[in-house]
Amino acid sequence: MGLEREVVADLDSDAPVATHPTLNTVDFGLQIGVEEILTDVDPDISLEFLKKAEAHAGKPPPTRVPRKTLVSTHNSYVEQQQNAGQQNAPRMVKKVVLALSYPPSVKSVSDLSPVSLTSILIAPSNHADALQMRLDELLVENHHEDKCVILRTITPPYKGAGTITIVEDEFGNTDKLALYNQGNSTILQAVPEGSVILLKEPYYRFSGDDDFMLCVDHPSDAVLLRHGPDDSLIPDSFKQAPRSHAASEWRDAGDQAFISKDLPLAAANRALEFTPEGNKAFQADLLLKLAGIELALNCFDSALSDALASRGGPSDWKAYFIAAKASYELTEFQVSKEYFESALKMKPEATNILKEYERCLARLREEKGNYDFAAMTLDVTPKNIHIDKASFLSRTEVRDSPHHGRGIFATEDIKAGEMIFAEKATSVPNEFNPEHNSAAAYAQLVELCKDNPTIHRKVLDLYGGTYKRSGQEGTIVDGKPVVDVFLLESIRRKNCFSGAHVSAQAANPDWDMWKQGMSRGLWVYSAYANHACLPNANRSFIGDMLIVTATVDIPAGTEITHIYLPPKAAYLLRMPQFRHSWGFMWRGEVSPEQHKKRNEALADIEAIIRKKRPTRFYPDAAIRQIEKLTNRLSALHEPEVYEDLKLPRLMLIWPTMWLVEAWHTRKQWNKVVKWGNEVFRNFGFVEPFRNGRLWMYKDTQAVTTFEVIKALKLSAEAYTALGSKVLARDCLDAARIGLTTMVGFVTDETFEAFR
């Protein structure tokens, strides 16, 4: 029972299967976006595993693997990975379990007790005692607050969902370390053997039978210590022989690292630390090099600041060029334009600068709403949805909502079918498998926020559910912003959208979410829009551009709303989804007893029409049987709820749409018109006609799916056959608006092709 899609073997092969419009695969992720398969939840963890972890919590591990065994086992895995040529393969992503979250450290190293690996577990009576504690005192499933541990890696890294290596403390005790979410801008993403690492307030995890490890999820909790500047923190047994302090040698080493594509090492070069204060020209050259490396690593904030700090010499045009490109990537296109113009004043003949400048001017035009949507679709490929476009947000603003926190409001009058806003994704990966794109979206968002405080601040401003914040997220501690990966995941889950590569292509009945894939990501501005069961806007996708279109005429000052979940005939199924995924309760009041009766009535209809294609010719008596059952189902909808509150009657959509198509096959045009009107009413257009004219997409907030558009086109054909050309034109005009709200744009060809 219900609205599951199913294939019936004895159906005609030359006609489309009668499916529930409310769960038509075409509707997945188009104007609505998130279904059960697209809803983010914690991955399943066995109760047995959790019980074992709880049994070990707060205790030392019952067994400890000897150093020799740890190293040999680890190295065998590394060797297998290298022999298979997988060391440079795309990295897997660790799936996040919010139920097992812990906070990042918000303390400076100077505020932590620098102790050995063996002393991070049991609070000592004094610091001297802490330094003497043994490794076998390590506590499982424990977050060692107010402590830090300094370790040296003694093996090459194994690169999987994280970077796993074997570490030792200054006393020779060993254990496993797993580093996650470090990203490509730091050498810690593949920490080499011999590196010295400081972990802030480390966490020691149970990871299986007789398997325990230090686990670092928050990128700001791990610090790579440098020989020389950090010698005061590095144990004597870890210190290396003195190295060159010549700035020129470190600069050359950085250049060589860049050439060999070892960008994290290049970014970590220490030339600036050894540059004499008076040597401004040399310092400017180094800052400019560093800015270029940071730009290549997608560290746009630091690239911008270092480029501007390098100014003061003949290479200032390069500084402005890098600053312009960094501002461009931060979507600050007006600022980018000004930096490009400064670069061109100094280097007017530079064709590469001029080319980038023209790109920037194109983005500024798009910020005014000037798009060629048809051309944009050609830039989207099955493997890459990222297109070079700007957001258009000037018709709206974010402010407090009288309903739910903040919302998006129109700043001018907007007509139905017009674009309200369009937004370039803040973060969306090129991973389209619905089972994997959630983890990929998380990993990309963490890296983006870690490397770009400007973007991090925008993301942190979003609703994060019940996850407890410290208030220190994003603050700079020890030169690094505090990044709480579990908070970012909670924000992502509460605010992400999913969609087809191109909504217009997904309007094809043959489109399949599993074959063509779905993108999943974060559009920060769009996330402020609140849910409404009867919205005034639909969203669609062209690549990583999210387009929001008005479904009614919207006066200035009106809040923009959309649907968070596909419209479900079974309203009781919506409740837990709203509560679980977005943290609010649906306020609709419908009798569960009546709802049960409607389910039973729908089941009676299902039993018949699942096996009857509406495009086949049936005798009038067979169709009237469906009409009778449909009228019975209609009578079970409480007038005080559905009529007085003007709510959609979603359970009636499938049978009424079937009747429209069945009577269309019989060319019974009056019947097509009658049941077409019922389809419109059931979607929420409670008064589709006024004064003898169609009155849809005017001032009635309702639900639109592709079935509405199909019913409008069939009704237009019926009105034409009946000689009502004005109403036929009204239906076609409304269908065009409806299709525009679903896919973002419509051409004469695409409108004609839609069936």
Automatic annotation (TrEMBL):
InterPro entries in alphabetical order: Gramillin-biosynth_MTr, SET_dom, SET_dom_sf, TPR-like_helical_dom_sf
Name of the protein described by the UniProt record: SET domain-containing protein
Domain SET: 394-565
Alphabetical list of SUPFAM superfamilies matching this protein: SET domain, TPR-like
Domain of life: Eukaryota
Transmembrane segments: none
